[in-house]
Design brief:
The complex is a heterodimer of chains A (about 110) and B (about 180). With about 110 residues, chain A is an all-alpha fold. Helices cover about 70% and strands about 0% of the residues of chain A. Chain A has four helices and no strands. Chain B contains eight helices and no strands. The longest helix of chain B is centred in the middle third of the chain and has 24 residues. Chain B is extended.
């Protein structure tokens, strides 16, 4: 149970960063920390004590495998997380070239 | 097992806290990778080698992109003025944390103990999956056979993201 709790604390760390930081790069870092904690939580749910890697061995009929379904889902989510991070970074580069700052407060003030 | 995971998770939380509070953006980006590579070790401990391989590749690419962006813009985080609305954010953060802890307490009743979960749905996938899909790796079987359309959607998302990134980087902004 302590593992789930620590995973939740990691999520909360990312959430705290998203809410309180003013730098755009740090907001993206916090978002990816939240993502990582979610991946870890899904992988934790699928774990079975004493289970082996979900690769079928025909010679070993009585093997216990860990749950492959959360792993398949996390595999999809990791790649989509990379796509969103790359896109956010492209937006940050545009914003910096236009306003010469990464502080969200100052950008808001500049637009009036 | 649970102890090893807990130690790595504590390290990941420390790395995340440092990444959020670092003065230099480059060190913030690099310490964000502590979290990513710690996740790789967690995946290996949780018997998920496919996830570990993908996470190593994705984390490296993310690190390269972030370092490129930081070196292209600015490394310092300017904190010349104190934020007059900072306490509003901190109060909002505390309120959200309390509400989320309440939901965790509600949800933890229906959660299995760590490692004692049962394979409810996956049993049907595991039985005869190697014969049905022709793949010994069950994760590959699920992704490319049982949930093939899901993977097609994922590829669509990737193409859309690449097109969006190209469109954002190529436009000429108004001066």
């Amino acid at each position: 149970m302590i593992v789930y709790l620590l995973c939740f604390v990691l999520f909360l760390t990312g959430l705290y960063g998203v809410i309180t930081r003013r730098n755009l790069v740090k907001i993206v870092i916090s978002l990816s920390i939240m993502e990582f904690s979610l991946f870890l939580f899904l992988a934790l749910i699928g774990y079975v004590e004493g289970g082996t890697v979900p690769i079928v061995d025909p010679a070993d009929t009585g093997a216990v495998y860990v749950d492959p379904l959360p792993q398949a889902m996390v595999l999809t989510a990791i790649v989509i997380g990379l796509a969103t991070t790359a896109m956010l970074m492209a937006v940050i580069i545009r914003v910096y070239r236009k306003y010469k700052t990464m502080d969200i407060r100052e950008i808001k003030n500049l637009r009036g | 097992m649970e102890l090893a995971l807990s130690v790595i998770l504590v390290l990941m939380i420390l790395g995340a806290l440092f990444a959020i509070h670092a003065k230099d953006l480059l060190s913030a980006v690099i310490s964000c990778s502590i979290v990513g590579y710690g996740l790789v070790i967690c995946f290996l401990l949780l018997k998920a080698p496919d996830l570990a391989i993908v996470q190593i590749v994705v984390e490296t690419i993310t690190l390269v992109i972030m370092v490129a962006v930081v070196l292209d813009s600015t490394r310092q985080e300017p904190f010349t003025r104190p934020d007059p609305q900072g306490w509003v954010n901190i109060a909002a953060a505390i309120i959200i944390v309390v509400v989320l802890f309440f939901f965790l307490k509600v949800a933890s009743g229906s959660l299995d103990h760590f490692g004692r979960g049962t394979l409810r749905m996956a049993q049907h996938y595991i039985e005869g999956a190697a014969a049905k899909t022709g793949s010994a790796n069950l994760v590959t079987g699920v992704i490319f056979d049982f949930r093939g359309y899901d993977t097609l959607g994922e590829a669509t998302v990737l193409v859309t993201a690449v097109l969006g990134t190209l469109a954002i980087l190529r436009i000429k902004g108004k001066k």
